[in-house]
């Protein structure tokens, strides 16, 4: 669908309608009409737009699945995103999952695992209990570290999308594609922050949130649940002990094992009474002075979704689609797709 593709690529390039219009010498209203689908540009204008946006003319013509129904979660009030950036997030999600669902339809819809029932857990009066209920709801062990959380959720039918947006205030959002839950993450965030964001968005997706609960209380509760989900109380007490007099360097090993930041680890220790408020405050001051509030050192590997690529490579090798089609779906160079999924017999037998 040309209109959707134009809007997506314009927003990706961070251009306003007026800016794009000025660069190709048309009126802003013309761009509005193109994006609304009420007018179509001629080839000369198409070529000018593709040049300004750094894409091919054929990218404008990529087919969109009009049967996909998206329900996007609301942006948090402190997300500090402009209207254009919010539009870009939504358009990016829709463009990505349009390609994703294309291969799902080609291979058959039952290739995706059944997703967990959303908004099916009632809140208790205890955050630790809520976190355990969330683990149980997802058929995850009640304790222990969660290795590669992205992979775990993909195998449970939750769609994950990681993309780049130049705004460090945006960490992620959730929503639904044809009633299947998705979580979108900012690639620019640290792996630890992405894991915390995933757990936070899971809380939004899986719990029943009372209508009378205000937004701040919902966010605070989801954040508390996410911390307890990643580092359960029993694990924290076993790994750290039930009482500590200071935050020490050995705690970094626990943060790394559970895939959380030191800031989150110390917060959990404070909440659980393992360290005092005074000890925690001293750490927060030192962390701020070291710049950790904005950029704490990364200690774990980045977790990225792989299921989409896996499905495309499978379809290529089963001759369901061509290598060229696979490259278009993955937005990956033809040679890279060939090298990653198409081995000849000599290479195979030499492995």
UniProtKB/TrEMBL annotation:
Alphabetized Pfam families for the sequence: HTH_3 (PF01381), Peptidase_M78 (PF06114)
Domain annotation HTH cro/C1-type: ranges: 6-60
A GO MF label: DNA binding
Coiled coil regions, renumbered to chain: none
Domain of life: Bacteria
UniProt record similarity statement: Belongs to the short-chain fatty acyl-CoA assimilation regulator (ScfR) family.
Name the record gives this protein: Helix-turn-helix domain-containing protein
